[in-house]
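Dear colleagues,

For the upcoming journal club I promised to circulate an example of a predicted protein-ligand complex. I picked one with adenosine-5'-diphosphate because it came up in last month's discussion. The inputs are reproduced below in full, followed by the predicted structure.
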Amino acid sequence: MDPASLPIRAHAKEILEAVRGSSVVVVIGDAGSGKTTQIPQILAKAGYGDDGKIVVTQPRRLAAISAARRVSEEMGVRLGAEVGYAVRFEEDTSSKTVIKYVTDGLLLRECLADTELSQYSVVMLDEAHERSLNTDILFGVLKSLVNSRKQALKLLITSATLDGKKFSEYFMNCPILNVPGVCFPVEIIHTMEDHVSNYMQAAMDVVLDLHVNQPPGDILVFLTGQAEIQKAVELLNKAVADLPEDTCDALQVLPLYAALPMEQQSLVFSPTPEGCRRCVVATNIAETSITVNNVVYVVDPGTVKQKSYNPLTGMGSLEVVTISHVQAKQRAGRAGRTQPGKCYRLYTKKFHDKEMADITLPEIQRTSLTSAVLYLKTLPLAIDVLRFDYLDAPKMEALEDALRQLYVLGAIDIDGKITTLGEQMAQLPVEPSLARALIASMECRCLDEMVIVAAMLSAENIFEDTGGPPDRDAAGRSRGKSEQEDNAVTRLAREGLGDHVLLLRIYQEWERAGFAPGWCRRGGLSVRSMRRARDIHKQLKANVRDLRRRVAGRDETRRSEKGSKKRGRHSDAPHEHSCEERGRSLDAQSALRKAVCVGFANRLAHRMAAHNGYRPLAPGAPLSQLHPSSARVSADSDGLLPEWIVYHECFGLSRPFLRQVCPVDDEWVQPLLPKMRNIEVKRLSGGASEPAGSACPKPAVSSGGADGALPQPALPA
Ligand code: ADP
Ligand code: MG
């Protein structure tokens, strides 16, 4: 599509006028109208990038990279020059950069180093309707920043649909611009069946029927995730190949999901081959963030995969759930961008009207808030996290859960004030527990090892197909096929020291094999993910080095300030040699487990021998089993599993499981336990230390229940 003909272009003048007259502007325009790619160019052309960069946030890293790539092409410049991007662990910008696409998480991080965001003249918070946790936090942070930087900072909020009024009220009654998109009528066809038992099969049937019987026009099918999409692509290709010759045109089937390599992802933007129909099978990424052109038929099973977290039990889940009316409308709208279209909904009209929610719950109301709360606590204004100016306030229980975890990790003190340790944790670009483990590893003298483990954990999907290491588990169940295959990875997996040590050993062996791709393939590892782990490793090492240098610099200043009085006193800062006199030195793997133990103290679980399971120490946590995708944890000579483990994730629906586990020693656990008793969450919220006239005038939620004390975890005597 020619960028000049996009609806946003026709409204360039209005947009510029609104931005000139107000420091905050909300722009609402249909998906595909050109918000992400055109607005920054319009602003840059009008000179808004002259005194500072224009930064545009995206909730997904791939959307940020893809938008930067597209805009650099449109402007005819090299990616990384005038147009660049920065996402976690990856950046391509230069001193020439005027338009910079970033993830919302990255902009939050930049705010820590430069609270005024002084390198930017315009901030555009894009895809605001998605209401990602990070974008929601940015709303509050930028609202106060716009007020303090006055006219020097322009803020644009761009969104695909709906509630402009709510945003405008929140942002000091700012102007709202509505940019209508091109929208042809879309006929909605609901199924008559009350219960579609297998939505994937049903979707495939509709696609085939459509392909054989309907006039030309591309198809867009919404499924829930990578595995499902790959399977669907395979099934469709096979089904089309099985059709009698000459029944219909060829069908080009393309997958589209966030983890797809960039080259494959951009195929959906290429013109459909002559005499061929295209069918794109996508996740909800195609709902608003990536626009597939020329779609005439949409197949909508009405489902989406959604992460949620229960703060009362500490359990997370990744479930296929029913979409909301807003999403259903967005999906249907995708069929009418170039001509009248049709949307086949695999649910009844009655289901749509009676069972579906109106809007999707914002992420802030269904996720763990540990990182977000640590972030807010780190901002220079001592923010009372219970009264931060949220667009929609999170649940009280979720805030309390986050505060309790941060206290256990030592990131905040008993009065809820951020500690030196907490500040250091916030500076590392990983979740709080992993950051704590990295800092602990400096003391345990296994930093190199821990950085490898953190990189491997951050790379995700290391194990091809199975989602977990081969050969498992304590109960003797094995994964069948992989047991016979004797390769380096299966041999390592049998050592039985849990996931962290296994990840470390895998990386070290791969390094020893000269980072050979063949080594990964033979071991059933994803070459792409392993390479990503190597890139992250390099980046993280630099982050840790920076942190150390800053800490060392500060210690130096302090020491000279305090003069001779306190000479010889130990600093509380991480330091490579600070635990030399800490008793017998541990071997590298035990040291690593110890650092992991300290880092994941908020996710400790105690063996319940009688139930062959573990009970996490979090209040309200259920008795759980080790998940089959966790690495083997060896039993002792009595056949008992280790008494203590730490885990990354407690998840599940009916049956709770612990995933990514590491056995830890009793002597490391005991010192951690006293801290977990008698936590007074009301003190932790930090309300008491809030300075008068802080940036958060609106009491978004009341300050808590009865006495503010949390239910206590069941601690072993
Ligand atoms: P919005 O943000 O309003 O949803 P975008 O600015 O993302 O719209 O997209 C505007 C148009 O540019 C759409 O028609 C889309 O298909 C097209 N487009 C976006 N990215 C690319 C790309 N990487 N390659 C080709 N076309 C693209
Ligand atoms: Mg967009």
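Two points we might discuss: Residues 1, 6, 29, 31-38, 66, 70, 266, 269, 291, 293 surround adenosine-5'-diphosphate (ligand 1) (CB under 6 Å). The CA atoms of residues 226 and 260 lie 8 Å apart.

See you all on Thursday,
B. R.
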